[in-house]
Amino acid sequence: DVYLNVAGGLRVSEPAADLAAAAALISSFTGRPLPKDCVVFGEIALSGDVRPAAQAEARLKEAAKLGFKSAFVPAGTKAEAGRLRLSAVADVRELTRLVGEPAG
How confident is the model at residue 83 (pLDDT cuts 50, 70, 90)? Predict the structure, then answer.
């Protein structure tokens, strides 16, 4: 089991927060920080596959407006990325490869 504490005790009911939580856990385990200018969204199935997120284009547009430069998104996301560099993620294994192997 994994328990995740969100800052301020905020309740997260957004399924697209799954991929961001997984990326944070992998980052912590590997000791490799995620880029500060990167946004992450996507839903993770029990199989480990990453499912598309609703409103992907709106999310990416807003992320670009807020100054983000890159994004980890579900594979197959059909959205105009604008000036964001997208990294498509099909499953948790691929996310682990993208975030990095354990340091040292």
Answer: confident
- Distance, in Å, from the CA atom of 55 to the CA atom of 71, rounded to the nearest integer, reads 14
Q: How many CB atoms lie within 10 A of CB 27?
A: 14
Q: In this structure, what token pair is assigned to residue 34?
A: 């995620």
pLDDT in tens, 11-44: 677 789 999 999 999 998 889 999 999 999 999 9
Q: Report DSSP state, residue 101.
A: P
Residue 9 scores a pLDDT above 80:
no
Closest to 50 in 3D by CA, of 104, 3, 97, 12: 97
Among the listed residues 33, 100, 41, 47, the one whose alpha carbon sits nearest the alpha carbon of residue 73: 41
Q: Which residues lie closer than 8 Å to 42 by C-beta, 6 or more apart?
A: 16, 18, 19, 50, 51, 52, 53, 72, 73, 74, 89
